[in-house]
Amino acid sequence: MSDPSRQAGPRISPLLSVLKQRRPVPAGIAPLDPEDEEEPAERRPRLREVKGGEARGGESGAEAPGLLRVAEAPAVLPMPAPIPPLSGEAAARLEERRRARRRGRRGVVASFLVMVALPVLAAAIYYLFLASDQYVSEVKFAVRAVERNTGHDAINVVNGPPNAVAGNTDSFILADYVTTRQFVDEIDRQLDLRRIFSDPAADFWSRFDPKAPVEALVNHWRSVVVSRYDLSTGILTVKVRAYTAQDSVRLAEAVLEGSERLANEMTERGRRDFVRFAEAELVRAEARLGNARKALGDFRRQEGTFDPVRLATSNADLLAKLRSDLSSMQAEATALASALQPNAPVLQALTSRIRATERQLRLVEAEGRREGGGEGTDMGSLVSRYAALEAEQGFAEKSYGVAVEALRSARSLADRQQVYLATFARPALAESAQYPSRPAAIALVAGFALLAWLTALLIVLGIRDHLR
Questions:
Q1: What distance in Å separates the CA atoms of residue 360 and residue 346, rounded to the nearest whole number?
Q2: By CB count within 10 A, which of 101, 218, 372, 458 is most buried?
Q3: DSSP E strands: which ranges in 186-337?
């Protein structure tokens, strides 16, 4: 019968080899050799006897038949070897790195305090304790024009003066006008803007210097006046800020009066321009009519006839009658010559009549040809020239009539107001200040400061990493 300890030996050896390979061995400690018999008993691995799912501990020498010995780790592990101390140069480098990291952290904290905390604190102090209240007055109005009838005839085409401040373009003109220097000068003469904007109740930062030039006054006016035109509704909105509610209402009323005055001036200028244009057209029509009449009169005097058309018609009728009479007399003379003697009194009288009719016929024909008068002196040319002059006189008379009617209509329409401002929201006295918006202003300063700080921090860290 074989020894149980010898049978268990081969089964233990593979397990010990696996444990030996997988257990980490501390640095500086030699691996254990299971075959080393000289190893002390307290450092030898203990064996567990496993049988039928039960285990019991015992010494390495206590073996029982049918038991499987499993190696266990020793109860007391050896201490690792101490880490050798760093050299002087390595310790100095390590300490320098630690000091650099501490300086970097202190620099980040200091930059945050300087770039973020201090500006936010200053903004909070200013807006919460120093900033002055500003009151807002609002006025809303729209530009409206008087409608007029239009047609297709010559009188209705020129009927009605052009609206100088009607439509979107004119509303934009009004919106820009309230921010111009001309308007600021007018308001300053009325209300003394320097006194209003340099109110002692205002804080130092927002108070206007009364000794500043007019350009600074215009810039300050543009900062407290907001004009906006809504293209979809055609409404012009103007908001005015001041340090007192009464001053804001006065400024808004002045803006409304100035806008109405500009609208009236531009409308009146348009009406005057239109009437002046109608008068100029009438003068030109009168001159044209006078020239036409003069040309026709000169033609009649030069040609010695009042109406060449009628003269040509009468000459044509006379020629036809003379030719007819001449033909009749010649036929009668031929008949008498065959029956009477050549010296017969009847035949001689008839011959004299024929000669007289021929002479008259030649005179009438010469009148029609105007022989010897040069080019364009025949009756046809006279009639053509006369017809042209007469047509020009007719056109001049019609143009004169249209110009007279247009001038009458222009003067009639100039007496009516063509454009007006429909004000439906007049300035009202404010009960509470709307500016400055303190939480929003502080949040805005904090956001910009934080953004600037983060940007600067990223730039500095990027440059530092690049230099390393």
A1: 21
A2: 218
A3: 225-230, 235-242
State how far the Cα of 316 lies from the Cα of 46, in Å rounded to an integer: 163
The secondary structure of residue 434, as a DSSP letter, is -
The answer to whether the peptide bond before residue 161 is cis (omega within 30 degrees of 0) is: no
Enter the tokens of residue 412.
Answer: 């009639």
Please check whether residue 227 is in contact with residue 179, taking contact to mean a CB–CB distance below 8 angstroms: yes
**Which tens digits make up the pLDDT trace of 215-242?**
999 999 999 999 999 888 889 999 999 9
Q: Are 445 and 118 in contact (CB under 8 A)?
A: no
Structure tokens at 88: 């002087």
Let me know: does 426 contact 278? Beta carbons within 8 Å: no
Alpha helices in 345-437 (DSSP H): 345-369, 379-414
Spatial distance between the Cα atoms of 253 and 241, rounded to a whole number of angstroms: 12
Token pair 């006008």: residue: 177
- What is the pTM (predicted TM-score) of this model? 0.54
Name the band, by pLDDT with cuts 50, 70 and 90, for residue 372.
very low
Query: What whole-number distance in Å separates Cα of residue 251 and Cα of residue 193?
Result: 9
**Six-digit token string for 49:** 């006897």
Cis peptide before 436 (omega within 30 of 0): yes
Among 242, 213, 62, which residue's Cα sits nearest to residue 137?
A: 242
Q: Structure tokens of 228? A: 């906006």
In angstroms, the CA 184 to CA 359 distance is 94
CB-CB contact of 236 with 142 (8 Å): yes
Q: Which two tokens stand for residue 352?
A: 């004299």
